[in-house]
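Blinded run. Sample ID left blank on purpose so nobody reads anything into the name before looking at the predicted structure. Input follows.
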Amino acid sequence: MPTEKDYKVIEKATIYDLRLIFTNGEKDTYTREEIVELLDQIAMAKDET
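Blinded prediction complete.
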């Protein structure tokens, strides 16, 4: 069963995933819809692992 520490590690990894997407992306600004789509992609990718 995951611990609170495990959840914090997962949260940080997800935030880092977002950081990489935004810093390596070609865009300087994103719409709300684009951000939601990126979050969905991350969530789906984590479900596949």
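Unblinding after everyone has recorded impressions. The radius of gyration is 12 Å.
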